[in-house]
Amino acid sequence: MIRLEVNGKNCRLDVPHDMPLLWVLRESLGLTGTKYGCGTGMCGSCTVIVSGEAVRSCQVSAGDVRGKVITTIEGLDINHPVKQAWISQRVPECGYCQPGQIMQAVELLTRNPHPSDRQIDEAMGGNLCRCGTYKRIRRAIMEASGNVENMP
pLDDT averaged over consecutive 10-residue blocks of the chain (152 residues)? Predict the structure, then answer.
């Protein structure tokens, strides 16, 4: 049995310790907002926040996150400044990468509430978008940075 705190809820799961967190979230907990992209941690589609740090859930095992606080896209309120900025800037096209992009942006703004363009590019560089919405992503992060003090 592995105990996790996911989106503010304590979970006790009978899963293998080496099972990737991505599959624990999607298959065991039904939290399908976190996406499978490449399976190698290179695309960022599976990004979640573990104890304040953005991580690729396909590369972290359930045993590695035992007892840690995990936040997925489902754990962010619809009124979260980053989600609102994503809507305002019309960031998504296909939308597949967006949960990972949003979670990476949340971690960036938590760590650095007012990032420069360069800092945004560095933080977001590992999250790929097949639709090429990078300029809108940057604008959304800049918009959200103006409201970061109000993050729920």
Answer: 96 96 98 96 97 98 96 96 95 93 97 94 94 94 77 43
